[in-house]
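#random but structural
TW: two for the price of one
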Amino acid sequence: MSAVKKVKNRSRCAPTAWANGPKLLEHIVDCVLQFEGDRHNTYRILRTLKNRFGSTDEMGIYEMQAAGLREVSNPSELLLSQKDEELSGCAVAATMEGMRPMLIETQALVSKAVFGTPQRSATGFDMRRLSMLLAVLEKRCGYFFSINDVFLNLAGGIRVEDPAIDLAIVVSLISSLMDVSIPSNVCFAGEVGLSGEIRAVQRVEQRISEADRLGFKEIYVSKYGMKGIDPKRYGIRIQTLGKVEELKGALFV
């Protein structure tokens, strides 16, 4: 009887959440690394998804060569496309991947919709976030994208989740819509809110320093994130904005 009672008691015990789940191995190990890459691109990204004894905010970028992987010490150089002339629809964003500042070029193409329903496509950026930014531009600035196809791409085949890239994407969308080019020595760092405000982002000093180091002449940031920062410390000119509407007078006169 006692043996039967023990079996019954064991059957009532629910298994732990991780015992039979798909993430069983991730619960056991101390570190999980993810190797990302596009088969049409030679660059590979190594991300830390779990680390019990260190930070998960680190990322490594490598280049596939004939002799193997080569570490890319300056990711900003490969994420900025090479072109001989300034073209509309391009804007550079000062982003952060973990603790590392990087400058990435955003490319947008806005054209008249051929079919009844305008197309929306984004490579390396969240589609829902793109829809939100388009709605903000229509509501707050009067730019009409509802009758246009919109295509968005981030140079280098990298995916960015940093909200500070919002401002550069907004600028590239307006630039393509109006067919006005943005100077290649100008970059942007700011999060765009639903009411059209340009919100402050984290580690703005590191972003400014990276843009200054790479030879950029001007950077646009939120005016709410400049507290305690002395612009005279940098060789780059710092422009501050509070709302998306201010872009029209600053860049698209």
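TW: number two ↓
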Amino acid sequence: MALKSFLRTILYQTEKSTQQIRFSSLPKPKDDWPTLLGISFPKSGTHLLDQILLGFSNVAPFSKRLHSFYAEYEGESGAKRSPEQALDWLDSLRPRDIASAHLFARPDAIKRVCSPKFVPYFIFRDPRDVVVSHVFYVTEMETRHVHHDYYQSLPDFDSRLKVSILGRTDTDVEFPNIADRFAPYLDWLNHDEVLSIHFEDLIEDRTVTLNKIIDHFLTRAPLHPSCTRQLILNSLESSINPTKSPTFRSGKTGEWKKHFTDEHKKIFKDVAGDLLIKLGYEKDSEW
């Protein structure tokens, strides 16, 4: 395992050096090349955003693969990582890296991310679709997930969906309701340095959304005049490949309507109705 990690590091650094040579004619930005950072709420298009950001490697000297991925919870044990671990991970990132994270918007993390070192993006999704996706992921796709056996023990999809909405209080593993799970991410929405992206916009209005991603990139990493917007747009578009996402299921929006019963709607409104309004998915509770 140590040898594999070492070889991956060598390959990664070699590819970055090759990229630097390839784009050596590009002037370095005033504060050096930034790190491209994709922050996501779980089950909200993490791999889609990763692929888009990696598309910038075709027009600038960024890495051609992710530097690393960070999550606030360890997948197999469900153990919560410390704030210091998140900061150490952020500090490990270097110019021209592309990295991805389920990262809480704690004050110290915000201070680091909202700096010239990063070009950060935050992607999120309708929380109703999130909980549906979560059921499929935990039950069918990730057998090593800490909650997999429990979900498998439940009698049907409806009961699993209730757990994904309400969380669990019968275990030492932290798993709160969907609103409380989203709460630590909310402050990313309050900082202009972080471009907020609705997953739905990448599915339903992709060209407009990709242009916003490009505009945000260009505020920190100007490119050669010969690199047209259409060239950048084509690069990002061509980098999207759902078949390379290990957790991609349907990539559709509004799937929750097929799965929510009246009871699911009621319990969701009780615990997270305000969240839907705050995120712009509903204007009131009449849905």
